[in-house]
Amino acid sequence: MSETQTTTRTADPGHDLRRSLGFxxxxxxxLLFIAPMAPVGVFGTLDAKSHGAVALVYVVATVxxxxxxxxxxxxxxxxxxxxxxxxxxxxxxxxxxxFIAGWMAMLDYLLIPAVAYLFSGIAMNAxxxxxxxxxxxxxxxxxxxxxxxxxxRAAARVGFLVLAMEIVVLLVFMVSATVxxxxxxxxxxxxxxxxxxxxxxxxxxxxxxxxxSIAVLxxxxxxxxxxxxxxxxxxxxxxxxxxxxxxxxAGVLFVAQTYLVALLEPMSSADLAARPEKQGSAFxxxxxxxxxxxxxxxxxxxxxxxxxxxxLAGQAAAGRLLFxxxxxxxxxxxxxxxDSGVPRVALLCAAVITLVAAVWAARRDDGMxxxxxxxxxxxxxxxxxxxxxVVGWFAVRRRGGExxxxxxxxxxxxxxxxxxxxxxxxxxxxxxxxxxxxxIGLAVLLGQRGRAEVAQ
Length: 456
Prior knowledge:
Blueprint: E1 7-8, E2 17-18, H1 23-34, H2 43-49, H3 54-78, H4 85-93, H5 95-127, H6 133-150, H7 152-184, H8 192-195, H9 205-215, H10 237-264, H11 269-274, H12 282-290, H13 293-327, H14 344-362, H15 367-396, H16 405-425, H17 428-455
Antiparallel strand pairs: 1-2
Helix pairs in contact: 1-7, 1-10, 1-13, 2-9, 3-9, 3-10, 3-15, 3-16, 4-5, 4-15, 5-6, 5-13, 5-14, 5-15, 5-17, 6-7, 6-13, 6-14, 7-10, 7-13, 9-16, 12-13, 13-14, 14-15, 15-16, 15-17
């Protein structure tokens, strides 16, 4: 068996994953899940909230998420297992904490793909209105599920082509915007995307930080790379590098595109704040006015296709989480069954859940709002437990050799403070749903403990 086809061996044949991914494949999955043009949909909201300093918002958000990326890089080196934060919390904080981490991460991994599928369905419906958006949504689920069932390597190859298309469209936008700015000048001050446009008064740090709590959600997905730790050739250090590289590259792309579009934006941040109905389409409107509708349509098509493949990466990560929890008997054992190194049962389970959620939301006018309000809390809670795992493994249990107080204590503590702060800033509906899901998880955990005591 060649290196690119080796299998992660466990003591339980039939529950193994095949090692076939390289560094490029990991980066593809990470960037697909994040989406290179993720700021398109939230640009107007962030511009209004930050008083025009939208590029600065993404600079700060990238730095804030770097603490989480660094904690992932620390843990994936010592616990290179599928399930990522579930596996980390399990070994560093105990089996119960691991279950809660995995349980909360399920809100992220199972429902973020549903959001992406819905976005794809909405975009395709706008291009072909004769076909209902729930039909387009279902088609996107079926196509990407078949690719995931084909195998992680095959899905990564197709995903690479889609990612290349997205990056080309982004580069077309950036070049077109630069040409327009050089020819016609900027609508706002050249430094305003970093300092504010002044339409809502002087620069306000509190406004920027308030917008950061929304901007960090654009990065959700880079952590999915860690879920493929058992399918990587060349060791876990490659996964750690991919996590950090993906975050850094996404940050550069986000800052660059929001800087350019902010200079093209004809409405002030004050006008956008006063007209919230304009915020969702602010990016497209600025492109329409300054460059032309052709670029608007090109970006829209790219987002429609890219969203479906962001969901592909999310579905693959969700399948690995369910696989890992099934293998440890925290979820039904059948989820850990593999076929030729592919966790097809777990993938199909994830696909069914996302299909039901996405189609349900696609048939409702407020479906997107309901889904988005749920997924954020799960991811941020899992990130918080990730940071706790770093402290638990290295500083408390001292399993990683000599303790580095800045790497093993300071960085994860600051990271946890950031994620908790974002949770506090989340909507009341999201906090309620997250709390209910957490309580259900505790009930399941207590039920499992009760059955274990009876069996003894």
